[in-house]
């Protein structure tokens, strides 16, 4: 029998004639079986059950991708969540401002003579701890000059006032930073929102450091001064001003995310109204900030009469300090006079804004905001005059300070209602 040599895969294989004749038949059988199996697979693929499973899988994958994409990208729902968060944070800042004003009015701000981020979160518990804290307070000017006959019970009151203010400040910091980190990770912030959030969180940290910087000014020995120990009015104004800026920025951002744009035509009259509203809001902010100098210098106690200051419209000691510019920030008479002028100017501007809005076609919500601003302005002036005439009682003075923030809040609301729609 003749044999042949077949080279396959680099191997020489010797086959007989019979094997060569049978080999094509085997290949044909294998090919037929493969074709039959392929047809059977195609039939299985065409069955309704298989088609339903394939469609079900595609639908699930598409739904999951859409849900992940919608959760990652900012939309109207995420804007509402961020808006509510910022409005809540602004409410906490408002509480810190009010509590800080009460702490100042009760002269409690210098009771804690050191600053620790974590250690001071736990107040003294045992009598020995209280005695140790009281002995530290006795080493500083406020006790030596003003409170040398203070008892431990009286010290506990002013200590808890300052401690509560500091703990509230830490709560504000956590309310900003922790949710911001969560929202950032979940992709809630748009590209334009990210720098705003970073600025707000950074400003909270700066505010805490500025508060301790302010307190340190009241703990320093000043042998050349015969005045009562108090914090620097410049640092107090910076502390209050930064808190008001944080409050305004949070409130403005929250309102613009929550409130839909009003459809207001861009007429010349509307342009004038917007500009006048912005100027009025700036004047309200400046008036509130001038109140820090009044509080820092106890300027509310120098002339307790209205509308005149004593027997004169313009007091004789208005420019008693030299150089003249020093009177604006260090002369209690001038500071009270400036605060009166700014308050009357704010009331006049708000009244003018109200009258101008009556002649302009505005949406109902904008009219309500301007009406609330006007009513609060007259209430705030009445509170200020009453506080002055009654020699600054603590409850009334605290209400007046809180009213300044409420007035500023209504001014921000008005600006949010009158803002231009983004095209």
> What topology, given as strand order, has the largest sheet?
1-2
Cα gyration radius (Å): 37 Å
Strand content: under 5%
Helix share, percent:
over 70%
Q: Residue-averaged pLDDT, rounded?
A: 84
Q: What's the order of the H and E elements?
A: EEHHHHHHHHHHHHH
What shape does the CA trace take? flat
Q: Please state the structural category.
A: mainly alpha
Low-pLDDT windows of residues: 1-13, 58-72
The total beta strand count reads 2
* Helix count from the secondary structure assignment: 13
Structural commentary:
The chain has 13 helices and two strands. The protein is flat, with a radius of gyration of 37 Å. With 423 residues, it is mainly α. Helices cover 71% and strands 3% of the residues. A two-stranded antiparallel ribbon has the order 1-2. It starts with a strand and ends in a 5-residue tail after the last helix. Residues 1-13 and 58-72 have low confidence and may be disordered.
Could you name the key traits of this structure?
flat, mainly alpha, disordered N terminus, 2 strands, 13 helices, two-stranded antiparallel sheet, single chain, 423 residues, 3% strand
What's a concise summary of this model?
The protein is mainly α. Helix content is 71%, strand content 3%.
SSE inventory with pairings:
Blueprint: E1 3-8, E2 11-16, H1 17-45, H2 48-72, H3 76-105, H4 127-137, H5 141-145, H6 152-186, H7 193-219, H8 233-258, H9 268-296, H10 327-330, H11 332-358, H12 364-389, H13 394-418
Antiparallel strand pairs: 1-2
Helix pairs in contact: 3-6, 3-8, 3-13, 6-7, 7-8, 8-9, 8-13, 9-11, 9-13, 11-12, 12-13
């Amino acid at each position: 029998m003749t044999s042949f040599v077949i080279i396959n895969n680099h191997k020489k294989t010797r086959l007989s004639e019979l094997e060569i004749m049978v080999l094509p038949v085997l290949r044909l059988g294998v090919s037929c079986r493969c074709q039959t199996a392929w047809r059977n697979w195609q039939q299985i693929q065409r069955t309704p059950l298989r088609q339903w499973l394939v469609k079900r899988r595609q639908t699930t994958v598409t739904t999951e991708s859409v849900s992940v994409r919608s959760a990652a990208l900012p939309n109207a729902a995420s804007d509402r969540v961020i808006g509510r968060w910022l409005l809540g944070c602004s409410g906490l800042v408002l509480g810190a401002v009010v509590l800080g004003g009460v702490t100042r009015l009760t002269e409690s701000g210098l009771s804690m003579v050191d600053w620790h981020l974590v250690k001071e979160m736990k107040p003294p518990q045992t009598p020995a701890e209280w005695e140790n804290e009281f002995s530290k307070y006795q080493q500083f000017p406020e006790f030596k000059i003003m409170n040398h006959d203070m008892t431990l019970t009286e010290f506990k009151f002013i200590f808890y006032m300052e401690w509560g203010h500091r703990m509230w400040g830490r709560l504000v910091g956590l309310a900003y930073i922790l949710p911001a980190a969560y929202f950032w990770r979940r992709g809630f912030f748009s590209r334009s929102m990210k720098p705003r959030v970073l600025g707000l969180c950074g400003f909270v940290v700066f505010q805490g450091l500025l508060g301790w910087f302010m307190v340190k000014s009241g703990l320093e020995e000043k042998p050349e001064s015969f005045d009562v120990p108090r914090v620097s009015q410049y640092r107090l104004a910076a502390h209050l001003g930064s808190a008001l800026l944080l409050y305004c920025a949070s409130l403005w951002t929250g309102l613009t995310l929550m409130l839909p744009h009003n459809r207001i035509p861009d007429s010349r009259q509307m342009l004038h109204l917007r500009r006048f509203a912005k100027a009025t809001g700036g004047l309200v902010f400046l008036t509130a900030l001038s109140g820090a100098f009044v509080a820092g210098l106890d300027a509310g106690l120098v002339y307790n009469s209205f509308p005149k200051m004593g027997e004169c419209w313009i007091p004789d000691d208005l420019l008693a300090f030299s150089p003249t510019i020093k009177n604006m920030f260090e002369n209690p008479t001038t500071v009270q006079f400036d605060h009166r002028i700014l308050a009357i100017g704010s009331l006049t501007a708000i009244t003018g804004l109200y009258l101008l809005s009556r002649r302009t076609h505005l949406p109902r919500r904008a009219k309500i905001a301007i009406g609330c601003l006007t009513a609060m302005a007259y209430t705030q002036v009445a509170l200020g005059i009453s506080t002055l005439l009654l020699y600054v009682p603590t409850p009334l003075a605290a209400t007046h300070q809180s009213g300044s923030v409420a007035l500023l809040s209504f001014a921000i609301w008005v600006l949010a209602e009158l803002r231009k729609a983004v095209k």
